[in-house]
């Protein structure tokens, strides 16, 4: 049992013991001490014993108790990484992979990328000869299985953040269960922040055949072990909004200013939904700091979301300068994946961006939706790490009780399954409906996915991957529609352009936007705007960036996000390499945008829409499903409203908005996907 008193003494507020990332004042002993103070340390031997004796060990423990950073180190210390074997630890989020691996490398006193490394999509910081502990996204481990289906390099796989139930985590769990049948010596650790250990254990418990002995394959217990790490966690006082809040960004900013004015020292963590919200809040703070110095002096405001440059990530983890109060504005990444020391106040908007999929209309979109009560509790818990804290919920108690679900729904039950089906097919799992899922996806969604893959030419009549297209698509770590677009571009002679477009689609946004600079950024965008739409506009921006010799000043002047463009360059290089590896032809079409458009359509024909005649506000309907959608204000085609368009993705706020839109000639749809459109829309061209 962990002693609360002790915890209070050990975590000295303000003197955050984790400042060692940049300063060199800490010796190894000090880090050792810090490690021993984490709640998980008391369970070190128990954990190692369970892992030794059981195939699967489920570990539940409060966020910040040391599961992610400590358990992999215990495993190394106990010899699980000897003899050329590797340990993997998976995370659902890329940013978490980077942050925890760098923390662990630092604790072990090694350089990140040597003994400890990480791999996320398009970024591999490991060393074949040296790395023994690899932090990866669960998606990356799935990809590794394509070359090494039994994960033979690994002695232990720790699936972390299992409570998140991300789609890749669920697929991974299903596959690991299969692997264990063939490789009983592979140990699994499933770590999670909340108690749903029993259902996990049920999933991993082998179905008992009669008269089979209880346990033991090679002396190993097959019944999963469950261990619960008691956290410390101080009391957190909860405050609800009295009235429903109109604008949670504005409300969050006002609340932080009130806390700053009235409450004693301690950092603030604000939960908003995504980069756009967060940038807007940062902007409001900056305005406040400029206009009203008295209120806001002493505040250090920092954003935290995936895609944040490395240097900015490190700032978030370092303690605020003396006498200053740190305010971190985060997506739900800080809910359980990352622990920030020193947080005493939490401001919770009550929302997050969630994926929803409707198999009837085949529409998947990102929706800002209420979080679950379980998430709300987790968020509040972040305030009680160092001493008793306070949580300000920007919603009413009535909302909490009546409009928030108790638990979230696993992502696999609210996602489009196209990528998931390809991955399983590529791993040779043909009976996808019969696959052993921790939570079953809906058969409708599964059938939809098979249908789309068939019309993309990725699956054949027997629902097997086609050769070469299907296998090539499986090799490209992108959404299958984008992969298909790249493959088509090789045949059409415009792969250089399409790869640029694919890279630009893989970053959040290449533009700088936000409240207050809308007009300027819109004007800047017009300089690059192409009549064909956003895809060709990306090409114009890329060209300008290239001609400026990749200048950050040029980006600044044109409201282009420099970090995003650097990422585009990186992803582009990786995609070119993959394209060459799978035998695609790298070629530029110079200025022939017709072929570029055809390649985009080859991937995205299913997202075609037509402008509603006589619609005053630019309403479109999707060709299949007749969903009402609108062009997103960030698109260069916003207000232009061409008759026929296709889009890359949808986001919902008050309406469903299409992001990244391109004009099309409808006859090309029939050309690109005759089967798909003839069956669905016999009178398409009317
Ligand atoms: P859990 O996985 O159980 O939530 P972690 O292992 O992530 O816990 O965290 C254990 C401790 O390590 C926490 O006190 C946290 O503040 C610290 N820590 C984790 N990552 C970092 C980092 N990147 N920088 C500084 N401290 C960190
Ligand atoms: Mg963790």
UniProtKB/TrEMBL annotation:
GO terms for cellular component: catalytic step 2 spliceosome. The keyword RNA-binding does not apply. Residues 48-213 form the Helicase ATP-binding domain. SUPFAM superfamilies: P-loop containing nucleoside triphosphate hydrolases (SSF52540). The keyword Nucleotide-binding applies. Its EC number is 3.6.4.13. Keywords: ATP-binding, Helicase, Hydrolase, Nucleotide-binding. CDD domains: DEXHc_DHX35 (cd17980), SF2_C_RHA (cd18791). It holds the Pfam family OB_NTP_bind. It is an enzyme of class 3 (hydrolase). This is RNA helicase. It comes from Medicago truncatula (Barrel medic).
